[in-house]
C-alpha cells in the first residue's frame, strides 16, 4: 500500500477534480502491475495497473489507495475491470462515499472477490480536498501567509514584497499547483495586483491551472488587474447590491452570493467552490479575509512562512481577529510539519479538533 500511495502522489498536480489514486497488483509477493491516475478523463489507477499485469492479474491482489469506482464516469467502472481481470482480493485504503450509490464493493463481493478495508491516514491525507468536497460539500481550505518573526504580514503602508526568501516563494508555487483554486480578497488585489498563477521552477512539470478567485463585494476591483489577463480562469464573487458591468473576457466569470453580517457569506462562497469541483483551495489574502475565514471556522490548514526579520508593531498583523478577553478563548493549532525553506521557517498547522468530521469516515466499514 505504501507503493500504491507513492504512485497516487504522482497525480498531486494533475488529477483535480478527481482524487489522487494509486494501485499495485501483487501475486506471491511479486509486484505484477503498478498504476496511478494522471488526469480526469484518462484511465484510472486500477486500469493502468491491470494493463501492466496483463493475464498474470488472475488470482492476484489489488492494493488500491481509494475504493474502486463502481459507476460510469468519463471512463467505465474499475470494479468491472477488476472482476474481468480475475482479481481475487482487493485491499482498499480509504472509503469513497461518492461511489456508494453504485454498489461497487457489493458487486465485487458478489463476483467472489474478497474486499478488505485497511484504513490508512496517509490515503485520507492525500485526498483531503476531495474528501472534504464529497463529505462536507466544501473544499479543504489552506491559508498561506508569509510573516516576519514579530508576526507581521505587511508594512502599515501595505508594502509586503518581499518578506520571505525567493526559495519560500518558489515553494508556495508547488502548493498552488496542488490547489484547485487560489483565493484572495479585494484588499490584496488593490495592494499587490497578484497574478495568482502557477510558475513552477521546472516548467516541464504538468499541472492543472487553478481557478483564480477574488472576493470583491462591491466590484471595485480594477479590470486591468492581472486576474483579468486570461492566463488562467478567474471567478469573482460579489454581493447582491451590484451587477457586473460590460462584457468580461472569456476567462472571467462572476458569481453573486448573499451577505452574512454585512460581508460576503464565506460559507456560501465555499459551497459554490465545491460546486465548481474545487477540492483544495489555497487562500493568499491579507489579515482581514484570513481573519474572517478563521472566525467562520473555515480554515483546515495553515501554511506559514516565518522570515527572520522584524517589521515593528505598526506593521499589519497576521490576522484581523479581535476581542479575546482570556487565554481560554485562544484558537489552538497543532504543528504538523516544520522545515527550513531558504532562510525561512515553514510551519504547517491544523486547528486542534478541526478534522473530527472528516476523520470519522476513516474507520467506516465497507
Ligand atoms: N504576507 C502575506 O502572506 C500576505 C498575503 C496576501 C496579502 N498580504 C498583504 O495584505 C494586505 C491586504 O490585506 P487586507 O486585509 O487589506 O485585504 P484582504 O484580506 O486581502 O481582503 C480583504 C477584503 O476582502 C473583501 N471581502 C469580501 N468578503 C469578505 C468577507 N466575508 N470577509 C472579509 N473580507 C471580505 C473585503 O473588501 P470588499 O468589501 O471591497 O469586497 C475586504 O476588505 C496587503 O498589504 C498585502 O500586501 C500579505
Summarize the structure.
With 366 residues, the chain is of the alpha/beta class. The protein contains eleven helices and 18 strands.
Topology summary:
Blueprint: H1 2-9, E1 22-27, E2 30-36, H2 45-53, E3 61-64, H3 78-84, E4 89-92, H4 104-110, E5 114-117, H5 121-126, H6 128-136, E6 140-148, E7 152-154, H7 166-178, E8 181-185, H8 186-192, E9 211-215, E10 234-238, E11 252-256, E12 259-260, E13 263-264, H9 266-275, E14 280-283, H10 287-295, E15 301-307, E16 316-317, E17 333-341, E18 344-351, H11 356-359
Parallel strand pairs: 3-4, 4-5, 6-14, 6-15, 8-9, 8-14, 9-10, 10-11
Antiparallel strand pairs: 1-2, 1-3, 7-16, 12-13, 15-18, 17-18
Helix pairs in contact: 3-4
Bound molecules: NADP nicotinamide-adenine-dinucleotide phosphate.
Can you give a write-up of this model?
This protein is of the alpha/beta class. It has 11 helices and 18 strands. A 9-stranded mixed sheet has the order 11-10-9-8-14-6-15-18-17. Strands 2-1-3-4-5 form a 5-stranded mixed sheet. Helix 8 (186-192) links the parallel strand 8 and strand 9 (211-215). Helix 3 (78-84) runs parallel beside helix 4. The longest helix is centred in the middle third of the chain and has 13 residues, at 166-178. It binds NADP nicotinamide-adenine-dinucleotide phosphate (NAP). NADP nicotinamide-adenine-dinucleotide phosphate binds at residues 145-146, 153-154, 158, 160, 163, 184-188, 191-192, 215-218, 220, 263-264, 266, 284-289, 292.
Amino acid at each position: 500500500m505504501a507503493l500504491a500511495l507513492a504512485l497516487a502522489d504522482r497525480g498531486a498536480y494533475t488529477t483535480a477534480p478527481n482524487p489522487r489514486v494509486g494501485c499495485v497488483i501483487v501475486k506471491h509477493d511479486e509486484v505484477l502491475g503498478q498504476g496511478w491516475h494522471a488526469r480526469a478523463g484518462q484511465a484510472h489507477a486500477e486500469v493502468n495497473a491491470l494493463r501492466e499485469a496483463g493475464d498474470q492479474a488472475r488470482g492476484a491482489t489489488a492494493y488500491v489507495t481509494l475504493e474502486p469506482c463502481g459507476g460510469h464516469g468519463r471512463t467505465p467502472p474499475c470494479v468491472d475491470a477488476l472482476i474481468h481481470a480475475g482479481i481475487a482480493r482487493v485491499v482498499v485504503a480509504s472509503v469513497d462515499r461518492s461511489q456508494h450509490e453504485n454498489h461497487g464493493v457489493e458487486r465485487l463481493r458478489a463476483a467472489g472477490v474478497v474486499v478488505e478495508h485497511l484504513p490508512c491516514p496517509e490515503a485520507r491525507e492525500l485526498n483531503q480536498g476531495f474528501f472534504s468536497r464529497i463529505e462536507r460539500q466544501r473544499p479543504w481550505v489552506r491559508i498561506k501567509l508569509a510573516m516576519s518573526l514579530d508576526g507581521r504580514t505587511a508594512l502599515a503602508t501595505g508594502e509586503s514584497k518581499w518578506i520571505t526568501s525567493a526559495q519560500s516563494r518558489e515553494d508556495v508555487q508547488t502548493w498552488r499547483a496542488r490547489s484547485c483554486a487560489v483565493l484572495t480578497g479585494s484588499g490584496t488585489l488593490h495592494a499587490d495586483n497578484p497574478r495568482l498563477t502557477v510558475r513552477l521552477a521546472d516548467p516541464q512539470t504538468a499541472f492543472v491551472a487553478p481557478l483564480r478567485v477574488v472576493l470583491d463585494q462591491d466590484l471595485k476591483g480594477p479590470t486591468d488587474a492581472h486576474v483579468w489577463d486570461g492566463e488562467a480562469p478567474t471567478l469573482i464573487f460579489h454581493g447582491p447590491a451590484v451587477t457586473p458591468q460590460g462584457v468580461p473576457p472569456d476567462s472571467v466569470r462572476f458569481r453573486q452570493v448573499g451577505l452574512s453580517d454585512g460581508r460576503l457569506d464565506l460559507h456560501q462562497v465555499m459551497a459554490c467552490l465545491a460546486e465548481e469541483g474545487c477540492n483544495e483551495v489555497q487562500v493568499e489574502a491579507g489579515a482581514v479575509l484570513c481573519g474572517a475565514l478563521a472566525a467562520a471556522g473555515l480554515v483546515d490548514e495553515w501554511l506559514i512562512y516565518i522570515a527572520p526579520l522584524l517589521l515593528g508593531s505598526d506593521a499589519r498583523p497576521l490576522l484581523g481577529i479581535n476581542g479575546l478577553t482570556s487565554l481560554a478563548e485562544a484558537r489552538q493549532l497543532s504543528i504538523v510539519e516544520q522545515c527550513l525553506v531558504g532562510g525561512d521557517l515553514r510551519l504547517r498547522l491544523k486547528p486542534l479538533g478541526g478534522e473530527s468530521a472528516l476523520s470519522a469516515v476513516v474507520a467506516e466499514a465497507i
